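ok so for the tutorial part 2 we go from a plain amino acid sequence to predicted structure tokens. step 1 is just haveing the sequence, like this:
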Amino acid sequence: MQEGNRFAQMVSFAGYLPEKQVTTKSFAGVDDLPRSLDFVRLTGIDSHHEASKDQGSFELAIEAANKALARANLDASSIDLIINASVSKMDKDLSQHLSPSYATLIANELGASNAQTFDVSNACASMMTSLMIAESRIKSGKVDYALIVSGEFITPIIDEAKRRNLYLNPRALASLTVGDGAAAYILGSSKESGRIRFSEPFTLAQYNKHCIGQASAKHRGPQMRTKARDLQNGVINNLGVFLQRAVEHMDLKWDEIDHTYSHPTTPKAVKKGAKIAIEIFGEINFLHNDSADTANTASTTHGVLLEKSQNSGYLKSNETTFMVSFGSGLAIMAIHFHLPEGVENW
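step 2 — the prediction. this is what the tokens look like for a chain of 346 residues:
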């Protein structure tokens, strides 16, 4: 296939959630929070999943990667590029891995001996950023198959937040909205254009200090401090313009999009964003707002929601999917793609 006549397509995807499930009320009940906040009512999050004692970001990522490879009917040796998009990159002992790249470790574990490997870091938008990079590599003829994978072990920030006096540290409250999970996508080449399309990335740097993740100063593991209302307002105030530009840039017809997914910071926030989209374009054919029992799993959220939709029998071959991603910073990106052939039979 000559460069210029070569395109990319979604070959498979997979989401993985660890078995342990924790109810929100068990750690964020009315008696636990400032002003007796009803956190479940405020966010719409009933529960989340947590990694087992033997799992960290790496182990979660491997679960999703193996599932995606099996669904694509591919051996790991067929993968030419592996990109890791994890925000956390933490092991079970809460040590963050820096070098060599996490993607290199994942390739070694999978047996992907022919793959180029590197990590991408763009907060919760890392996965979509990685998909855009992989798509460009396939179109250029440098890569036939790319695996984009992430495992997010982020629930330790809940424990860190709970150690604080939340009356005095209200910016730690957003830490209670997360969950652990993993996701993987495999992209391959196609002769057909338009199987995958991306928006122009938006970066709104004026919000770059509204959500900061870093190592905890007093305890092992991470912490997160968020101006949640200001960050959400930043999204809401710019979402309409972004969606209009994205739909035009991607040459989409809104009423022909079969499935829509937003980054689920909370189910309540997704409803606010959907209202803006409906006011501009009209009704959404199928909004998958299903994170009430998974919470926000950072870069893996869309993959987790796609997995839930597939398991529920909602997805059919070649239907179209539109996903919007938000990354603290503030980054906004969107992807539109045709679902893989045979997705309903996985």
